[in-house]
Amino acid sequence: MEKLLNTDDKWRSRRKMLTPSFHFNMLEGFFEVFNKEMRIFIENLEKYSDGKEMIDIYPLIKHAALDIICGTAMGIELNAQGDPNQPYVKAVEQYNHLAFEYSLNPINWIAPIWYATGKAKKRREALETLLGFTQKIINERAEIFDELEKSGQKVEKKRMAFLDMLLNMKNENQLSNEDIREEVDTFMFEGHDTTSSGIGWTCWCFATHPEIQEKVYQEIYQHFGDSDRDIVIDDLKELKYLERCLKESMRLFPPVPAVLRKLKNDIDLGGKIVPAGATVVINQYVVHRNPMTYPNPDNFDPDNFLPEKAASRHPYDYIPFSAGPRNCIGQKFAFYEEKVAMIWILRKYKLTTNYKLHENLGGNESILRPKMGIPVKVERRN
């Protein structure tokens, strides 16, 4: 978490160094992992595919997203989808919940009270699990990387995991061991929790809007037919309606519902001066539901992202990945992953639910998790 609060100079130099890691060609190399893990995901859904009983698919989505981030960021196979009691997932949930609870309730800021509740110990244990997991993987991957280097072999750049790129930068004296741990912790922590939220809420929007889901399915079917071949990056360009649906889902349910920013200069807000140095909260959840920008803002309407409508809005009217210099460096990665996931899910299954869209609310945490999970019926398509 400390990586998210880096000073300007440290952040700026690190961002400049890491941006090439998210180039189009590098992201294309991650599609092998996307497809492999989503095949496992749809196989796991098969046992629930009679369309009769409602199940919560959110934990399954989280495990798939964790396997994807481990494969792409760490270059390892974690198999969280085969082990539903994966401790890293539980530690992320617990740490996130306790950190948010601490920040919201000032009484928790009184150290004796915070420690007396036992929550300080639980948060420390969760953090130790998170840091221990990533450090273990970094050490193991560094050994493999060094052995390849000594033998004169190199990992094909297009197939490099994020960690491999960082280890390569270490060998060029650009990063220290601590720098690598910070980057991997951030990418692991943020990279699976946010995509889980994005995929989960999109499934929810489709389950509560069967007519829109069917329209997306028809678009997918027209492109892929009956094939269950792997999805490649060029496929994503053809599925414009699905893309609009994903954007609309993140409008209603932005995975990160709010961010904090420290002002560099005084700003005038409605005649009131907010001084430089003040910390302001930018609430994407509220920004995205501005009725002056989005008519019927609580409705799920993919037409909000028709090209002509999107062009008429201010760029900061839609900020699911934040905006400006400190926007999310992994936003293309996340969007590609979510799009691939929805193609795999919808070309195999139909999702329905007994609930309405806004009966499922987002929890009060740093990631917008659905309070009810994603309770849906899964029906196999013919």
Automatic annotation (TrEMBL):
Gene3D superfamilies per the UniProt record, alphabetical: Cytochrome P450 (1.10.630.10)
Binding site for heme: 328
Cofactor: heme
Annotated Pfam families: p450
Keywords (A to Z) from UniProt: Heme, Iron, Metal-binding, Monooxygenase, Oxidoreductase
GO MF annotation terms: heme binding; iron ion binding; monooxygenase activity; oxidoreductase activity, acting on paired donors, with incorporation or reduction of molecular oxygen
Similarity field: Belongs to the cytochrome P450 family.
Name of the molecule in the record: Cytochrome P450
Species whose genome carries this gene: Acrobeloides nanus
